[in-house]
């Protein structure tokens, strides 16, 4: 990456983009939290009605779909860290997949290697901009394919559960009451 004219506008743009990504990450975490809260409330109410013959299958349908929603929402907010560190295996710091600004990547380095790479980064403006752009890209990829994707699946599971429970209720006992 070759930035011919580094200036405050470029720095401001990168900072604003990072702040927007952080705000989007907070929004999706709040949505996942809402799914967890609603699902646990529905499960609590469904468990209370599980013993009633007219609501047994409806409650069971709701419980299963809510458990799936909770699992997907929890997975979406779970941090992605690789705790296994092979002895003697050092990451390729020049690889396009390595991001010195991402903590899971720099955790794989010992401090002297981290310090040396950061020194190179801080003394080379183009390298510093490249690292920031890579950080924006990897954070966006992580949010899109990990957080937003699984929160969407959780919403779909919860909505499907409500629809299926209504259909099950109508099939098992609802028509008799109409």
Characterise this structure.
Helix 1 (8-49) packs antiparallel against helix 2 (56-77), helix 1 packs parallel to helix 5 and helix 4 packs across helix 5 (125-177). The protein has one domain. By secondary structure, the chain is an all-alpha fold. The mean pLDDT is 87. 75% of the residues lie in helices and 0% in strands.
Strand portion, in percent?
Answer: under 5%
Query: Shape, please?
Result: elongated
Number of self-contained structural domains? 1
Helix proportion range? over 70%
Stretches where pLDDT is under 50 for at least 5 consecutive residues are: none
Main sheet: strands, sense, barrel = none
- Rounded to the nearest angstrom, the distance between the terminal CA atoms is 69 Å
Write down the Rg: 24 Å
In round numbers, the mean pLDDT is 87
Number of helices: 5
Number of strands: 0
SSE sequence, one letter per element: HHHHH
What structural category arises from helix and sheet content?
Answer: mainly alpha
